[in-house]
Design a protein that fits this description.
Blueprint (H helix, E strand, L loop, with lengths): L10 H4 L4 H9 L8 E3 L6 H7 L5 E5 L5 H11 L5 E7 L3 H10 L9 E5 L22 E5 L6 H5 L7 E7 L7 H8 L7 E6 L21
Parallel strand pairs: 1-2, 2-3, 3-4, 4-5, 5-6, 6-7
Helix pairs in contact: 4-5
Length: 217
C-alpha cells in the first residue's frame, strides 16, 4: 500500500497568463485543485504565505536535521483550517511529538493524511487527534503508529475511501469489535489494510495460547 496523491503546481503557469485567468483560478481554487505545495527545506511556508492568497496547503515533510525545517512544517500545520493534505515521511520521534501536538484541533479541509515515522512511536495517539472528527478525509495511511482510538475517528470519517493502518505496535491494539463498529460507518470504503507487528518471541514456558478467535463480519 502507498499514498498515491501527488501534488501539481502547473496552476502557477495558468495564473501568470493574464489577470483574468488569475482571478478565475483564485475564485475556484478547490475545483482546479490549486494548492500551496510545501516541502522543507526547499520551500518556506512563511514566504509562500506572503506571495499567494489563501489557497489549500499541502504539507510534505521529510526527516531533515534542520530545526528551521521542522519549525516551518509546524507553522504550516498551525493553519489547520487551510491544510488539505498532510504527508509526513521518515519523521523523527521528536518531530512527530511536535506535529501531533499541533494536530489536536479539527482540520476541516483535510482530505489526505499519511504518516510513516522513521522509528515506531511509543506514545499512543489520543482521541483528540484531528479534533476527534475528520468528515472530509478520503485517504488515511498510518504506519508504526499506536492509535487505539482510531475507530472513534472513523465514525465521523464517512467519506473515507482508502484506509491503511499498517505495522500497528502492541500499544495500539484495537479489538475486532471496536474496529468493526468503526468500519461500519465507512460506506464509501474501497481499500482496507490492517497489519499488526508481531510481539517479540518469548521462551516456551512463557507462551500462553490465546482463546479461540471470534469471527467478526
Amino acid at each position: 500500500m502507498y499514498f498515491c496523491h501527488a501534488a501539481s503546481e502547473e496552476w502557477r503557469i495558468l495564473v501568470h497568463v493574464c489577470r483574468r485567468w488569475r482571478n478565475l483560478a483564485f475564485t475556484s481554487p478547490r475545483h482546479l485543485n490549486l494548492q500551496l505545495y510545501f516541502i522543507p527545506p526547499y520551500k518556506s511556508i512563511k514566504k509562500m504565505l506572503d506571495i499567494w492568497p489563501e489557497l489549500p496547503i499541502y504539507v510534505h515533510d521529510f526527516s531533515y536535521p534542520s530545526d528551521e525545517a521542522e519549525d516551518d512544517a509546524a507553522a504550516a500545520l498551525s493553519l489547520n483550517y487551510r491544510v488539505s493534505i498532510i504527508r509526513l515521511e521518515k519523521t523523527s520521534a521528536s518531530a512527530w511529538e511536535t506535529f501531533a501536538s499541533l494536530m489536536q484541533h479539527p482540520f476541516p479541509a483535510l482530505t489526505h493524511l499519511s504518516v510513516s515515522p522513521y522509528l515506531p512511536i511509543k506514545n499512543p495517539i489520543s482521541h483528540s487527534f484531528l479534533g476527534g472528527s475528520a468528515p472530509c478525509l478520503q485517504d488515511l495511511h498510518l504506519i508504526k503508529l499506536p492509535f487505539p482510538t482510531l475507530p472513534e475517528l472513523l465514525l465521523s470519517s464517512t467519506n473515507l475511501v482508502r484506509l491503511w493502518h499498517d505495522d500497528i505496535p502492541p500499544s495500539g491494539y484495537i479489538s475486532p469489535q471496536a474496529m468493526a463498529t468503526g468500519l461500519s460507518a465507512l460506506t464509501r470504503l474501497e481499500s482496507l489494510s490492517l497489519t499488526f507487528r508481531s510481539p517479540q518471541s518469548l521462551p516456551d514456558r512463557e507462551i500462553q495460547l490465546p482463546p479461540p478467535p471470534t469471527r467478526i463480519l
